[in-house]
Specification:
Strand order of the largest sheet of chain A: 1-4-5-8
Radius of gyration of chain A: 22 Å
Number of helices of chain B: 12
Number of strands of chain A: 8
CATH topology of the largest domain in chain B: Butyryl-CoA Dehydrogenase, subunit A, domain 3
Distance between the termini of chain A: 47 Å
Radius of gyration of chain B: 20 Å
Oligomer: heterodimer
Shape of chain B: globular
Largest interface: A-B, 45 and 52 residues
Strand content of chain A: 5-15%
CATH architecture of the largest domain in chain A: Up-down Bundle
CATH architecture of the largest domain in chain B: Up-down Bundle
CATH superfamily of the largest domain in chain B: Butyryl-CoA Dehydrogenase, subunit A, domain 3
Number of domains of chain A: 3
Largest sheet of chain B: 4 strands, mixed
Number of strands of chain B: 10
Distance between the termini of chain B: 19 Å
Strand content of chain B: 5-15%
CATH class of the largest domain in chain B: Mainly Alpha
CATH superfamily of the largest domain in chain A: Butyryl-CoA Dehydrogenase, subunit A, domain 3
């Protein structure tokens, strides 16, 4: 097995030597959540398609659905090699992390055949339609309606925070099919087409002034009945499964290649260049070291999770902690960066000062981490209840 | 920076065995009985620890020990910390490690077999009256195999039979080992906040000792990560136990018709304790694995573990007392037993602030 993995790593490295693309003439976004222009999207789709054609996307998925059917550990090895080479990210990440696994686990044969290969290759882009203006942490209170009408469902409602919404062909959509059932029981899960009449996508502007998020408004949009995933009323159960992928999937971003390591290096560089009154300040140093310690714990958490003996006491603790701790760590780190940067940290893309605004931008952006995918407050409830066995808050 | 974590079946077996034995033999009732005892530990417990092979856990096999590594040491220390084991196991194992690192083959052969067999309780006398604890800060003086000076906060004193002492001979740092039965050694118990770990003051008036022949500075540098690791692991066990008892309590204690653990004002701080404890355990086992692999990153990881432990343990215990409410303020509640150990462990081998200053210096200077 490990020989096969080593061989696979070598194959990825070799391929990258030839195929790693040069940077495009325009700026690439940092991740899939911040794609804003058509040219960015075209370029990133093309990259994912080439990676797929080379056999490096969906490595562990069944061959019958467009995967490569390789053993466990193959995709992780590939991803590590890509990260090591500084390769661009995969743009269809909602599909790869959530829609795809959901269809693979819970879809019909027809749904798997229809969707999986196309999403692996970024031939069809997916977005997520869970949150609504009135339903954030209390997701089960969602009000988007899906009314059965012959061979179709008619959708009426309003979704927010839809990354990639502007570019998406399909959405994993939660909508209420039974308004009379208790709130968790009346929800269904759809694989909804978006390029149909009655769907309007409007951009949302983030607190940083940037785009990337959208809202999607359904006005009597008609989707086929076979877009239903699972059964009517099974939506909450399926949404919970998706959210568990979501919290797990953020492992990478908080781990070795993510904000933790890189952010700390930047903070150290900032402090090394700071005037002595700041660089030698005991309080600043104490806070820097505390962040370095936490970054180290985060970096080794993934390896610890793979050793059953080291998680036997609380099997769920580390997987549930990763997102909470990683995002709060990134927030503390970038906030300290703003503070150390001082007056220079008050500039925002000032043309006279190269690179100005990175620390306030990083800090303001960090709230996406502590809010999206379960707020830190909700995650503390989840950890308290599932790991410490505390009684439910609600 | 790629430490491979190790934790195998043999480690899990030691954990399970230690956990079972400690749960039976080291109960809160026993701790309270020993707290009132002038000696503070139980000779019968020590004999059992020796029979289990734990007094020789990390002593080389050639000297009658089990020859096991840092991950085993971390496992045993964590489990001991969970039950506040009052026996001087940690100081004995760490003193033996220092003799192993600083002594030559003949010296290891002379001093270590009795320690491995459980016939000699050992400790390190390295703390100055002003709290300086690093070997180079020693004010003890060594001349012609006689040592003069004073050390404070010595674990297991006055019960220890062997002490390792850093001392200056001329300008050079030395590590000396001596029997407390030698003439010129005066031991005096301290009144400590933590009755489950006794400490004492030791005065050396020309006490006969044997200088360990190795490079004392190098041996001390090599020893510190073991000591930080063992203490941090023990503190992780204690913090985890304090967290566990508190979570169990707030899940059942009812006020305003609800278990108080359902209130976020209680739940969220306890999750913060959980995070601190689990991060500490990650650092402990990363440091232990690095030590066993001879990884150069081991020293920094062990330092980070002690820094994290110095915050996590007092934090876990303060929340334990607070969330047990009025009961937590009584002697009857076990929370203060852990709080006492946490307060005593924080400054030992450097507190969090000291270690963070050193880490920052290594990153910036």
């Amino acid at each position: 097995m490990s020989e096969a993995i080593d061989e696979l790593r070598a194959r990825v490295q070799e391929w990258l030597l030839e195929q790693l693309p040069a940077a495009p003439p325009f700026a690439l976004p940092q991740n899939a959540l911040t794609v804003t222009s058509d040219e960015q999207m075209r370029w990133l789709r093309d990259w994912q398609a080439r990676l797929y054609d080379a056999g490096f996307v969906g490595a562990e998925w069944p061959v019958a659905y467009g995967g490569r059917g390789l053993g466990r550990g193959a995709q992780r090895a590939i991803d590590q090699e890509l990260a090591r080479a500084g390769a661009p990210f995969l743009v269809n990440n909602v599909a790869l992390a959530w829609a795809g696994p959901m269809i693979l686990h819970f879809g019909t044969e027809a749904q798997r055949a229809r969707f999986l290969a196309k999403l692996l290759r970024a031939d069809e882009i997916w977005c997520q339609g869970f949150s609504e203006p009135g339903s954030g942490s209390d997701l089960a209170s969602l009000r988007t309606r899906a009314v059965r009408d012959g061979d179709t469902y008619r959708i009426e409602g309003h979704k927010v925070w839809t990354s990639l919404g502007r570019f998406a062909d399909y959405m994993i959509l939660l909508a209420r099919t039974d308004p009379n059932a208790p709130k968790h029981a009346g929800i269904s899960y759809f694989l909804a087409p978006l390029r149909i009449p009655g769907v309007e996508v409007r951009p949302l502007v983030k607190l940083t002034g940037e785009g990337g998020f959208n809202q999607v408004i359904f006005s009597d949009a008609s989707i086929p009945a076979e877009a239903l995933l699972g059964r009517e009323g099974q939506g909450w159960e399926l949404a919970t499964a998706t959210l568990s992928f979501e919290r797990g999937a953020s492992e990478g971003s908080a781990g070795a290649s993510g904000m933790g390591g890189a952010g700390l290096e930047q903070l150290i560089a900032l402090l090394r260049g700071a005037p002595p009154r700041v660089r030698d300040d005991a309080v600043v140093r104490d806070r820097l070291a505390a962040l370095a310690i936490e970054a180290t714990a985060l970096r080794h958490a993934g390896a610890r999770m793979r050793l059953p003996g080291l998680v036997a006491d609380r099997p769920q603790a580390l997987p549930l902690m990763v997102k909470l701790v990683g995002t709060e760590h990134a927030q503390r780190l970038s906030e300290l960066g703003c503070e150390i940067a001082g007056y220079a940290g008050t500039l925002w893309k000032d043309p006279a000062v190269q690179g100005s605004g990175t620390w306030p931008h990083s800090y303001m952006s960090s709230f996406a981490g502590t809010i999206a995918g379960g707020t830190s407050e909700i995650l503390r409830n989840v950890l308290g209840e599932r790991v410490l066995g505390l009684p439910k808050t609600r | 920076m790629s430490v491979t974590l190790r934790y195998d079946e043999e480690h899990a077996l030691l954990r399970d065995e230690a956990r079972r034995w400690l749960a039976v033999r080291v109960t809160p009732a026993e701790l309270r009985r020993l707290a009132a005892d002038p000696r503070g530990d139980e000779p019968a417990l020590w004999r059992e620890l020796a029979t289990l092979g734990w007094t020789g856990l990390v002593i080389p096999e050639a000297q009658g020990g089990a020859g096991l590594g840092a991950v085993h040491l971390a496992v045993l220390a964590e489990e001991s910390g969970r039950r506040l084991l009052p026996s001087p196991l940690l100081p004995t194992l760490l003193a033996a490690k220092l003799i192993e690192l600083a002594g030559d083959a003949a010296q290891r052969e002379r001093w270590l077999p009795a320690v491995a067999r459980g016939e000699a309780v050992a400790s390190i006398a390295h703390v100055e009256s002003n709290g300086a604890w690093e070997a180079h800060a020693t004010t003890a003086r060594l001349a012609r195999e006689c040592i003069t000076g004073a050390k404070h906060h010595v674990w297991a004193a006055p019960g220890a039979q062997l002490l390792v002492v850093p001392a200056r001979e001329g300008g050079a740092l030395r590590l000396a080992v001596l029997s407390t039965e030698a003439g010129g050694v005066a031991l005096e118990p301290e009144q400590g906040v933590d009755p489950s770990r006794r400490t004492g003051r030791v005065r050396f008036e020309g006490a006969t000792c044997e200088t360990l022949t190795g490079d004392a500075e190098a041996a001390w540098q090599a020893w510190r990560p073991w000591a930080w690791l063992a203490l941090a692991a023990e503190m992780a066990g204690g913090a985890d136990a304090a967290l566990g008892m508190t979570a169990a309590y707030v899940a059942t204690r009812v006020q305003f018709d609800k278990p108080i653990g359902s209130f976020q004002a209680v739940k969220h701080p306890l999750v913060n304790v959980l995070i601190a404890v689990e991060q500490l355990r990650t650092l402990v086992y990363a440091a232990a694995s690095a030590l066993d692999a001879g990884d150069p990153e081991a020293a920094r990881l062990a330092r980070m573990a002690k820094a994290a432990a110095s915050e996590a343990y007092p934090f876990a215990c303060s929340r334990a007392v607070q969330f047990h409410g009025g009961y937590g303020f009584t002697e009857d509640c076990d929370a203060h037993l852990y709080l006492r150990r946490a307060l005593a462990s924080r400054p030992a081998l450097g507190d969090g602030r000291e270690h963070r200053a050193a880490i920052a210096a290594s990153l910036l200077d």
